[in-house]
Structure formats: C-alpha cells, structure tokens
Amino acid sequence: MSVLPGVLLNTLLKVTTLQSKVREVLFFHMKAAQYNTYGDSSVIEINSNAPQPVLKEGQVLVAVHAASINPFDYKLRFGYMKDGIPLSFPVTLGGDFSGIVTDVAKSVTEVQIGDAVYGQALIVNGGSGSLAEYAAANTKNISQKPKKVTFLEAASLPLVGVSAVQALEEHIKLYSGQRIVIHGGAGGIGSIAIQLAKHLGAYVITTVGTADVDFAKHLGADEVIDYKTQKFEEIVENVDAVFDTVGGETTNKSFAVLKKGGVLVSMAGQPDPDLAKQHGVTALTQSTGTIAGRLNRLAELVDQGVIKPQIDKVFPLDQAAQAFDYLEKGHPKGKVVVKIKE
C-alpha cells in the first residue's frame, strides 16, 4: 500500500512539471522598451513581462542581438503621425535590428531557423518592434546579415543604408563624373550616402555643422561646407543632384544649385513643385522601402568594404530612454545603437 502514494506523487509531480513547461511556452515573457501613451522620452518604460510576439503569415521570430533608433521612431512616439498612423498601446519601440531567427511561420521558406538576419520590424509595417529580446518581422523586410560586420554594426544599417541605396542608385541613378550635394552628411543617412556616392564615382559636396567637418572629410567627401558659417547656395552651382536629409529652407535653396535636368531627392518633406518647374529639375520625396532586395544590395556593398557602418554610441536596452534623449537632443555622427544581447 505504501508504493501507490509514491507512484501517484511522482506522477503528479511530472504532470505539474509538464503543465508548468506548457505554461512557460504559451506565456513566454521577454524584456522590451515600450510606451503606453504619446509623449517625450519620459513615457518609455522597460517592461520585463512583455509577451513574446505571435507570428503572422510571412513572418519570422528573431532573437534580437542589437537594434538602432531613427527619428521616425520618436516622431511616432510623440504622436506627430497619430491621425494617419493610429497606434494600439502598448507599443514596442524601434524598427531596425539584427539577430538570429528562432522560429518561422509555416509558409516561410526563404529564411531558416538559425539564420543571422537584419532588417526592420516596425510596428507600422506589421512587425512587433525591435527594442526587445524577441521581434517578429516580415520576411519581405529582412535579409541575410552582412557577413563582415558585427551584429551591432548590422543593426545600424537598415533604414539609413537602404535610404542611400534607394536615393542614389534608383532615383538619382548617380554615375561616375557627376556632382552631388548631400545635405546632413554627418547624420545616419548622410554618412552612408557619402560613401556610396564616392563608390559610384561622383564628386561629393556635403553640408554639416562645424563639429562634423572632419568627420565628413574622413567619410570621403570632396568638399565640406559648414552650414553654420557658410551658405552653400553661394558656393555651389550646376550640380547634377541633391540628396536632402534636412528639409525646410535647405530644400528650397537647393533648387538654385542644380543644373537644368538635375534631380533633387528629399527625405524631409515634399519639395515645391513650382520651384522644380521654374528651375527645370526633377524633385521628389523619398519614402524609404526597407525591402529584402535593397537589404541584399546593401549587404553586398558592406561586405565589399564599400560602406562602413557609422556608430556614434551604444546603449543597453535598460537605457532606451537615454538613447532617445541622445538622438533627439544631440547631433550624433552616424547612428545610435541599442545592445540587446551580450
């Protein structure tokens, strides 16, 4: 009679352990940087019990090693786009990331578990946000990570690198011997665009602040204009293209430096169509599409040594709010990256 209670006890223990493991799988939690209301960096919270993302069709689950932040991320958080892009709270911050695939949706064949990938997991594109230990991302928005850079470096690249590729190779179709002005050459996008433009054989003129002149020269710019002490519109003329990451009056003044038939691509607002017509140039706003084909092209350029990632500062996930303060209130040279996995 004494054996039966022991057997029952062991059985109950096994069942309890199994139930516990099932609950662990079904209710897996992770750490994520989130916000529950619109506002400045003070609304950012580190949630240690965020639910693991549930995969949708065409998605993969990634163990995030690193993520980087962009102005779009804080503009979304401030609520600047809430009329056009309503959010359901809580929202996990971030889009750009790099990491290792840990699970794939049933229909996914182009990516496998164990692959090192990079790309975007933006909430507004159907992803789950990248400032988290795990992220769900659409396969159309990721690619194999560049082999010759670290996860930190790869995470700095998706938006800024694809923006440069899309603008220079697809919209401007820049080629050797042409002259281009790149506004904001020390920023995330500009620092990549200078490198790509030089690779394509162009003569590169860039505008930066006083503190960033040497940095822009180091990136390979042929001519660096300090916008704080110089007026580019009085120095530059007859260029083939302008890539503008600044906007406002900088965009308007850029029309006068273009030759007839030139191209202006703006990352910061819609260029004035009347000014474009008056100067006889093509002007367009670029909405960057961080898609697999462009990420593949970017990875190729990185592995060839054409483009070198530019990281200004790295923060741990627990300091996500400080990372955003640094981006919003300073003028980083390149990108701000958040390290997720040691």
What does this structure look like?
The chain is of the alpha/beta class and 342 residues long. The protein folds into two domains: 26-156 and 310-339, Alpha-Beta Complex (Quinone Oxidoreductase, Chain A, domain 1), CATH 3.90.180.10; 160-285, Medium-chain alcohol dehydrogenases, catalytic domain (Quinone Oxidoreductase, Chain A, domain 1). Helix content is 32%, strand content 28%. It has eleven helices and 16 strands. Strands 3, 5, 6, 7, 8, 15 and 16 form a seven-stranded mixed β-sheet that branches. It has a six-stranded parallel β-sheet with strand order 11-10-9-12-13-14, sandwiched between helices. Helix 4 (158-171) packs across helix 5 and helix 4 (158-171) crosses helix 10. The termini are far apart.
Largest sheet: 7 strands, mixed
Mean of pLDDT: 93
Q: How many beta strands in the DSSP annotation?
A: 16
Poorly predicted spans? 15-26
Which series of helices and strands comes N to C? HEEEHEEEEEHHEHEHEHEHEHEHEHE
Topology:
Layout: H1 3-26, E1 29-35, E2 44-51, E3 59-69, H2 71-78, E4 91-92, E5 96-104, E6 116-120, E7 134-138, E8 142-144, H3 151-155, H4 158-171, E9 179-183, H5 188-199, E10 203-208, H6 213-219, E11 223-226, H7 232-235, E12 239-244, H8 249-254, E13 258-266, H9 273-279, E14 282-285, H10 292-303, E15 311-316, H11 320-329, E16 335-339
Parallel strand pairs: 9-10, 9-12, 10-11, 12-13, 13-14, 15-16
Antiparallel strand pairs: 1-2, 1-4, 3-5, 3-7, 3-16, 5-6, 6-8
